[in-house]
Fold this sequence. Notes:
Number of domains: 2
CATH superfamily of the largest domain: P-loop containing nucleotide triphosphate hydrolases
Shape: elongated
Structural class: alpha/beta
CATH class of the largest domain: Alpha Beta
Distance between the termini: 73 Å
Number of helices: 18
CATH topology of the largest domain: Rossmann fold
Strand content: 5-15%
Strand order of the largest sheet: 3-2-4-5-1-6-7-8-9
Number of strands: 9
Radius of gyration: 29 Å
Amino acid sequence: MPAEFNPQMTPPYSLQAEQSVLGSILIDPDKFKDVVLQLVESDFMIELHREMFSAMNALSFDQSRQIDPVTLTNILVERGVADEQKCRESIMAILNATPSAANLNDYVNIVKEKSLRRRLLDVSEQIHTTALDESDSVYTALERAEQLVYGISDSQKNNDLIDIKTLLYKTHDNLVELSKDPEKYRGVMTHFSGLDGILFGMNKGDLIIVGARPAMGKTSFVLNIAENAAYKGKKTVCIFSLEMSGEELVKRMLSTEACIPSTVLRSGNLTAQDWNKLGMAASKLAECNIYIDGTTESTVSRIKAKLNRIKGLKSNGLVIIDYLQLMQDPNEKRNGRTAEVSAISRNLKIMAKELEVPVICCSQLNRELEKTKEKMPTMADLRESGSIEQDADAVLLLYRPDYYDQKQDQQNRAQVIVAKNRHGSTGTVEMAWDPQFTKFSELSNIEEQN
C-alpha cells in the first residue's frame, strides 16, 4: 500500500473573510448575484458557512422571499443544520464580524485564494499517492498529475454569460483593427494563395485536420506550411512528430528549401554546389522561430505542458502534430480506440482555444478508401473518426491522382480538398507536388515558370 501523505499543517482559510462575505450579503442582498459568479459552496472552509451560502442560493431563486437573517434562519432550521437559537447566534456573530459591505470584493478574493490553496494541497496529496502506487506506469502517474494541476487552473476561467452589447463593442473594435491591417489580424496564413483564399487564415483556437492515406504527403504538406508561417509570417511554430525524429524532419525541410533530393542527403554524397545550397537553406531556416519535438509517445496534456513553456507562442503561433492516431489518452484507453481518438480530438480543440493558436493535426484515412473506384477522400474516411469531424474547424484532405494512375495526365499534381470550413466555404485547391524535394507549390507559379 502507498504511504499516506501528511502535510502536517492546518488547511489555509480565513474565518473573518468567510464571515464578511456572508455578512456583506445579509447587509446588501443584491450583492449575492455577483458573489455567486465567483464562489461556490466548497470555497468556504467552515461547514456552517457552506450551509449558509447554499441556503442563500436557494433563497435567491425564491421570488417570494428575500435574503435576510430571519429567512436564512428559517431555511437553515428546515434543513436541520442547527436549532433556531444556534442559527440566530451564528448569524449575529457573522454580522458583528463584518466591518462593511463596501469591501465585499476583497473578502471574496481572500476566500477564493484560500480555497485554491486548499485544492492545491489536496492535489499534492493525490499526486503523492499516485507517485507511490507502482501498479500503474510512471507515465500514467505523470499524466494524472498534470491533469490534476491543470484542473485547478481550468476551473478559474471566466465562463460567464456575456451581454450582447459587450460582444458587439468587442466585435466592432476587432473589425476596426482588421480594416487597418488585414494581414496582421487575419490569422496564421499557409501562404498558399488558393488555400488562404478559402480559409482566410487559420484562426486562434482553430483545430485543422489534414487527412490523407499514407504516402500522399501529409508530413511534407504541414512542414511546408510550418516553414511558410515561420519565415514569411514571422510566427512561432511548434511541431510534434510522433513518427519521425527531429533530425529527420530537419533533413526534410533542408531538402525542400535547398532543392536537394532527400536521397542525396541520406547518402551523404553532396557536391560542392549542394553544400552551398544547403548552407543558404540552413541560414534561412535558422531565422525561423521553429521548435521540434520528436517524442514517439505523447498525450495532449504532455504537449500542452511543453507548449506552455514556449515564449511568444500564445496568440502568435502555430502548433502542428503528426499524427493523431499515434497519440494516446490513458483515461479513455479502456473504452476502446474510437473513444480514445475522439477524446484526443476534443482535447486538442480545447487546447487550441486555451492557447489561442491554430492547431494542425494530421490524421490517417481508412483503408476502405483504397477499395473505392475514384479513391477520392471524404470526411467519412477519417480513420477512427468518432468526433474528429465534429471537433475540427477545418478538414483538409490530400489527394494525388498520379499515385493511383501513373499514365493519367496529372503527373506531379495534388489536390487539397477543403471538406469542412466552419468559417467559410469549401472547395478544392489544385497544387503542384515535387516528390524529389517533398514540396507542395502554387500551381500557378509552376505554370508561369513553364
